[in-house]
Amino acid sequence: MTQADLYTLLPIIVLTVWALLLLVVDLFIPNDRKGWTALLAAAGLALTAGFTISLAGTDTYIGFGGMVLLDGFATFVNLLLLFSGLLGISVAYNYLKRMDIERGEYYSLMLFSVVGMMLMAQASDLIVVFIALELLSIPLYILAAIAQPKGNSGEAGIKYFLLGAFSGGFVVYGIALVFGATQATALLDIAAAAASGAANVPLMLTGSALILVGFAFKVAAVPFHMWTPDVYEGAPTSVTAFMAAGAKIAGFSALMRVFVIAFPSLAGDLAPVLAVLAALTMIVGNVTAVAQTNIKRMLAYSSIAHAGYILMAFVAFGRGGEIAASAVAAGIIYLAVYALTNFGSWGIVIALENAEGKGLNLEDYAGLGKKNPLMAASMTIFMLSLTGLPPTFGLVGKLYLFQSVIAIDMYWLAIIGVLTSLISAFYYLRVVVIMYMREGEPTTDNEGWLQFTWVLMAAATVILSLVPASIFNWAYEAARQLVNL
Amino acid sequence: MDFMSNPLNVVTFFPLIGVLLLLFVNKENKVLIRWISLLTALATFGLSLWLLSQFQPANPNLQLTINESWIQVANWNISYYMGVDGLSILLVLLTAFLTPIALLSTWSAIEEREKDFNIFFLLLEAGMLGVFMAQDLFLFYIFWEFTLVPMYFLIGIWGGPQRIYASIKFFLYTMAGSLLMLLAILWLGIHQGTFAVPDLIRMGGIPAETQIWLFLAFAIAFAIKVPMWPLHSWLPDAHVQAPTAGSVILAGVLLKMGTYGFIRFNLPLFPKAAIHFAPMMAGLAVVGIIYGAIVSYYQQDIKKLVAYSSISHLGFVMLGLFALNSQGIQGGILQMINHGLSTGALFLLVGMVYEQTHTRDFDVYGGLWKIMPVYGSIMLVVTLSSMGLPGLNGFVGEFTILLGAFGSEAIGSPWFAGLSAIGVILAAVYMLYMYQKIFLGPTGSIVETVKEHGHALRDLSAREIITVAPLLIFIFWIGLYPKPFFELIAPAVDNLVAILQAAMH
């Protein structure tokens, strides 16, 4: 292992070792003190974030013969993932105790999943992409089922596992076909083979389409979204919060890298497919969300819809240069927006969910405006952010997504995007209506860490909308490194 | 100029200081809450006068501007760009002027959750002021959408029985329009390389065909807000359900955001399309004038009558704007102010009697003049102003608009102005009909009903008179001596007309 290899994987190595140690250390932590495990897990994530930041710079580290790399893009995504991991722990800590499903393994599994996600962001070889996909998914299957035999947790885990395995199959088959077409699995070699004309184009196209299908399952794009509402609803809410943000960030970052680096030559055939996929996802996600009465299911469909919005940024993947860079930047900025809003809104869902698994219907939010004004105001901010209204980061992020579509003159897609946003306003506003305009007596959990999470997210959502310049520039720089501008 | 001491920033964000203070007040302390928000609004008005004192009427360009880079990524260039000129200065003043009046009217009308009410109201004021000052399309869009949120709460929480329906309808209608505008904004920002309106106007060069699409995208957003026939159906619901202060601001300022949008964006950015669509827009305006007037006449609910009369009045404004000549546009802008004053006053007055009677049904009213003479006289002045009686403000605006529309080259036919003159007559019919129903004739059953509930109908209180009095001053002032107002508007309008003339020939 050379020095470059070490640097490339250093954050991942640190986190893996930490997670393994945590698994052992946890054995010696008594059951009534599992808070220590949570704290140690958070410390591991923070430490890894420290290493990631210290390695950040203009250099791109390439390790293991080009199998993995660490560039600005990976750094951005990794930090986003580590940040999501930290938030995932802070919303989970008290919730697990309250729901009586507290186990030390929870936190180790989360760390392993984060390791997989980070590897996904750093992968520059299809084989590594697949390994990362499995590494991030398997702990999530277990986490989804961790409340078994309570509620539908077991069902959610099995469903997630079966469909996850199924989609994994698509990815592997796709990789195999791409390898057959290009004799390569490294992203750059695939692109080179395609450029030199040595590749079998139909085979490569089929392979890339299968990879796309596999990832469409992971990020919950229509028509591969069927598992999402059931899994999101059945899994413990803290797992859902983590899964919704983490799996999306990782899935999209892999898609971006693979498609921008390896398959730009296929853009002519794939871009329309992606556009239709994005449009379908926005339409089905938003329209179905209107009919939901359970907040977990509503947010699940909202999560599907947001996958659609992010997919819009992909349509420009083959354009190269500035257009592709700003499209990728739009995608990762929106992932950051989504992570913020996601943890905030799920945090509040967790606060209202009580021990019997009740408090998950929209009607249970009646009267929250009077009972807990701060929480209702924060939830309003999250709903506005998801709709894309000021004064929230969601607005700025969404507009940047739309610009990437307009920049390539795909007006019909942009129009579908805004029309579905209008539909989404209806169901997001319904939450606000219920909180402020109906009478009720909701019970809320005001535990410190949980409250800290959603207050912080609400503040960040508003403040970043006022001063978004630095995060925009950072994301754009990251995207420029990805497209090699 | 320093960012924090720029008068535009001071005026726009001063209401937020009130919001911050209110956050720390106990919600039971109603007196303190009322005074904090009233004083904040009054101070904002004072600051807007300070702004006016620094404004040079003869200068046709944007003044007191502040232009800072906000988000600059690759081909995206967004700035924090604020400025006022003759097109917007009066609207800024109107907003700052109406807000304290509306707040004062709530002292007896809003009984619950006063703290939240005042917070939303001041947030709304900041948003509206921002709309009239923003010179960057992106910034404008943010302020524009932001005003939706507090207004939605004002209608939804403190409104009438159908408030939730009305508030959602208001929200979705307006948002539907603005989303299409958003796409047009993004198109401009990407293809022209800037979102700054003055730069976009200077650059010009958008092909006529593209202008038509962009014009339509902007026009739908603004036409919904105005509202122009046939996109008006949210307005009666919102007005009838909104609390009085909400109606005052809705009619007085929020609707003006639509007409202002046409002047600020549609005309100078897409002059060729504006000329192309002028006859069509004028036609819709005339339909709106007549339609609003006829529907007003058939209303059973006083507030609904006033709401539909707004559609008719704003039809005049739109007719003036799309005359695309100096008189028409000047008249249009002045009429925006007039409508804000007169209709604002009407909603206030209707709200004042509603607080006592809890009904707005015409059938139970009648003969109130004998019981409430002060109320009756004030209402008479406002009714006549709304009708356009010479000597009061409405006449000056409508007359100038008709003059502009008659001679308009862009509209191309004097018939539009001729037809809309019928609207003036119809306005007299429905306004006098309303006045007669409420104040004249035999005493209505409501007098007895109120008496049975313990306290007989009383005339206006001192606070209520103080609330309306400032509006009356301006109703007379503009009616008798409109020159200073036109002097503020004229140079900027001439500038705008020059752009349109250049596109026409």
Strand order, biggest sheet of chain B? 1-2
Q: What string gives the helices and strands of chain A in order? A: HHEEHHHHHHHHHHHHHHHHH
Strand order of the largest sheet of chain A: 1-2
Based on CA atoms alone, the radius of gyration of chain B comes out at 22 Å
Q: Please state the oligomeric state of the protein chains shown.
A: heterodimer
SS strand fraction of chain B: under 5%
Q: Residue-averaged pLDDT of chain A, rounded?
A: 90
**Mean pLDDT of chain B, as a whole number?**
87
In total, the number of domains of chain A comes to 1
Which structural category fits the helices and strands of chain A? Answer: mainly alpha
Q: Number of helical runs of chain B? A: 20
The total of beta strands of chain B comes to 2
Based on CA inertia axes, which overall geometry of chain A fits?
Answer: globular
N- to C-terminal distance of chain B: 39 Å
* Structural classification of chain B: mainly alpha
Number of strands of chain A: 2
Description:
- The complex is a heterodimer of chains A (485) and B (505).
- Chain A has helices at residues 3-25, 35-55, 72-99, 104-122, 126-144, 153-182, 187-196, 201-219, 227-234, 237-262, 267-290, 295-314, 321-352, 368-371, 373-387, 393-406, 411-437, 448-466, 469-483, and strands at 61-63, 68-70.
- Chain A is mainly alpha-helical.
- A two-stranded antiparallel sheet of chain A has the order 1-2.
- In chain A, helix 13 packs antiparallel against helix 15 (373-387), helix 13 (321-352) crosses helix 19 and helix 15 (373-387) crosses helix 18 (448-466).
- Chain A is globular.
- The mean pLDDT of chain A is 90.
- Chain B has two domains: 1-214, no CATH class; 270-505, no CATH class.
- Chain B has a two-stranded antiparallel ribbon with strand order 1-2.
- In chain B, helix 3 packs antiparallel against helix 19.
- Chains A and B meet through helix 13, helix 16, helix 17 and helix 19 of A and strand 1, helix 5 and helix 6 of B.
